[in-house]
Design a protein that fits this description.
The chain is about 80% helix and about 0% strand. It is built from seven helices and no strands. The longest helix is centred in the C-terminal third of the chain and has 21 residues. The mean pLDDT is about 90.
Amino acid sequence: MNNLGVLYEQRKDLVSAANFLRQAIQIWEIRLDPDHPELARGLANLGEVLSLQRRFSEAEPLYRRALDSATASLGSEHPDVASIMYGMAKVLRNTNRKSEAKKLENTAKTVFANHAKRNLVGQTVDVREMAAAR
């Protein structure tokens, strides 16, 4: 259901997207722990769809819940948490809370930068150096 919701979002059918995402969330709320990362992802996905519909007052609590849930299950330094922060920052920016949005964006940027350093994202390898090290 979540994947169908994302697919319909990409096809710009936001009503169908929201319906599928709500169904996924409803199932996950019954079957998963409240802090499960899949539930957090679904909440954030629905928040994004509602944001695209300019329904910011409905999107914000979903993003807040997704952020709390993802932080509890994945930790504050996880890139999925940072992605949710960016989505929530868009909502804050669209509701004229630019300073809150900026703070959240900066935190998300730091999380992504730290993740990239720890995981060597964006690094290159010279195969000649690797061969010479053998």
